[in-house]
Design a protein that fits this description.
2 helices, alpha+beta, about 90 residues, Aminopeptidase
């Protein structure tokens, strides 16, 4: 499944669709050089398939490419940053 991105101004999302239905989404807001990931959700029937992991990994790659730092304010994104030391290079300082 492919992660897509949609952005309008400061607001955006990384998402995965299946049969034209959004089944996973991670929403963010960019202010200056900081991307705040504030919401991640995966449809119930897709739980356990690591789609949320793919969304956050894509956000990290995007942040690296665009010289952004990430504030993981949603609990899922925060947990991902806690488990993946390799994401620390894009973690915004609190």
């Amino acid at each position: 499944m492919k992660v897509e991105q949609q952005q309008s101004g400061q607001d955006g999302s990384f998402y995965i669709e299946e049969q034209n239905k959004r089944i996973a989404e991670s929403r963010y807001m960019v202010t200056g050089d900081v991307m705040d990931i504030y919401h991640t959700q995966v449809s119930d029937e897709y739980q356990g398939k690591h789609l949320g992991d793919e969304l956050i990994k894509t956000a990290v790659d995007y942040a690296r490419q665009h010289q952004l730092k990430i504030t993981p304010s949603c609990s899922f994104a925060g947990a991902m940053f806690g488990r993946h030391q390799e994401f620390r290079d894009v973690l915004a300082k609190s």
